[in-house]
Design goal:
By secondary structure, the protein is α/β, with parallel strands linked by helices. Helices cover 38% and strands 19% of the residues.
Length: 447
């Protein structure tokens, strides 16, 4: 269906991909895996045509359509959620506008026997037949189903997209892509901004999707539930496994062990042969055998062991200052936005050292509660913060707060205070930012 043929992409002096080839078939559900920086997002961009390769090509049939959800994108403003989502149905919207115009003319004219009046009726019939053919009468139901599945309520449909956070606007973009019914969906971290219920809905949707799907995700359970094939990118090569993620991990380990055993056996054979050649090279009686062994070595197809990329993040949180027994205490806490009472009469306390999860459906107030605790939002009731408590907050839209024109080093240098400033390079190294990466601008990094 889609052929990736001898694809090569260079980043400076290293290969991101070195002549990789594989096919994407109609019912494939492919999980694209590999270390950060291995080239997963770049491969999707090459397939969709947003990034030009240094060699090879991507082949696909005429009229083939691709839906692509990147990690980051620019959003449109000034439309409601419903208007923005329905914007993917361009032909349907154009036909509906023409039908509306014709109906208005028919309602205001009285020359029922005229040729032009009959032409309007014929056009109206043609447009309705076309709508029937392309499923235009089902658009509203399809849009509503997918928006609800991704966590929007009917009350949200007529709100402006400007009112929503970046994570929610990404959901709108995902809804639009799912509605295109493309032959191939390329999804880069689609679950990043979804809650548990929305992830479950997306899993079910993708399992029964009529086209092929290639997705990148750090959610192992999501990969296991959706995919039937795993393609690993490692050090410029790909390794294709016809199975889901957890099984791929088992098969990769087995393949590595078999490869290593074969490599060791061959190295022993090579060493024995070279030893024989060296021992009898000067003996005339062994000349024929020596030459035969030399030819054997020349013809031998050497087994190569791919290098394993074992880089991993290693860091720890420095010890927090000793605090009181209770970190946070809530008494009858509530929050409303105009007429929308998000929550009320919340009573709880969080003890020192506890690990707490806030769970619930979209709109129940999880993020609002956290923002109330850290003092970003005014609220009803009382929130007491315990003795000697220091708070740090990582938000859903944290990446949007970064200045994309600054380098990685500049960004961390500005955030660091005190003694840690002497060790910024070590800190960045712990998060896998090497000497080359720390001087890159935020704008060129993947999500």
């Amino acid at each position: 269906m889609v052929g990736i043929n001898e694809l090569t992409v260079n980043f400076g002096e290293r290969y991101l991909f070195n002549k990789i080839s594989f096919l994407i078939n109609k019912q494939d559900r492919i999980g694209l895996v590999g270390k950060n920086g291995a080239g997963k997002s770049t491969l999707l961009k090459v397939i969709v045509g947003e990034y030009e390769s240094d060699g090879g090509d991507v082949s696909k049939p005429a009229g083939f359509t691709i839906g692509y959800l990147p990690q980051d994108m620019d959003f449109e403003y000034g439309k409601t959620v419903l208007e923005e989502t329905k914007s993917v149905f361009k032909e349907v919207l154009e036909i509906n506008a023409k039908i509306e115009d014709i109906n208005h003319q028919l309602a205001t004219r009285e020359d029922y026997e005229s040729e032009s009046y009959m032409d309007l009726l014929n056009h109206l019939n043609d447009y309705n037949e076309r709508l029937q053919l392309i499923g235009g009468f089902n658009v509203d139901a399809e849009v509503e189903t997918i928006l609800k599945g991704l966590g929007f309520t009917p009350e949200d449909f007529n709100r402006l997209t400007d009112e929503f956070s970046g994570g929610w606007r990404m959901r709108i973009e995902l809804a639009k892509i799912l509605l295109t019914k493309s032959n191939l969906l390329l999804l880069d971290e689609p679950t990043n901004h979804l809650d548990i219920e929305s992830i479950q809905w997306l899993e079910d949707f993708l399992k029964t999707y009529s086209g092929a799907v290639v997705l990148i995700s750090h959610d192992k359970a999501f990969l296991d539930h959706v995919t039937n094939r795993t393609i690993e990118i490692s050090l410029g090569k790909i390794y294709d496994y016809k199975t889901f993620y957890s099984k791929y991990l088992e098969q990769r380990k087995e393949r590595r062990e078999q490869q290593l055993a074969a490599y060791n056996n061959q190295q022993k054979q090579i060493a024995d042969t070279e030893k024989f050649i060296e021992r009898f090279r000067s003996k005339a009686t062994k000349a024929v055998q020596v030459q035969s062994r030399i030819k054997q070595l020349d013809k031998l197809e050497r087994i190569e062991i791919e290098e394993e990329d074992n880089t991993a993040m290693h860091f720890y949180f420095p010890p927090a200052p000793r605090s009181g027994k209770v970190a946070v205490e809530a008494h009858n806490v509530g929050k409303a936005f105009d007429d929308n009472q998000v929550f009320s009469d919340a009573n709880f306390f969080i003890e020192r050292g506890k690990k707490i999860a806030f769970v619930g459906k979209n709109g129940e107030g999880k993020t609002t509660m956290i923002r109330s605790i850290i003092g970003e939002l005014e609220h009803e009731g009382e929130l007491k913060i315990g003795h000697n408590i220091q708070m740090a907050y990582f938000a859903q839209n944290q990446a949007e707060e970064l200045n994309k024109n600054k380098t990685v080093f500049q960004t961390i240098d500005e955030a660091a205070h005190g003694e840690i400033r002497k060790n910024i390079r070590k800190l960045l190294g712990a998060f896998l930012f090497g000497e080359e990466e720390i001087d890159k601008k935020i704008s060129v990094l993947s999500g």
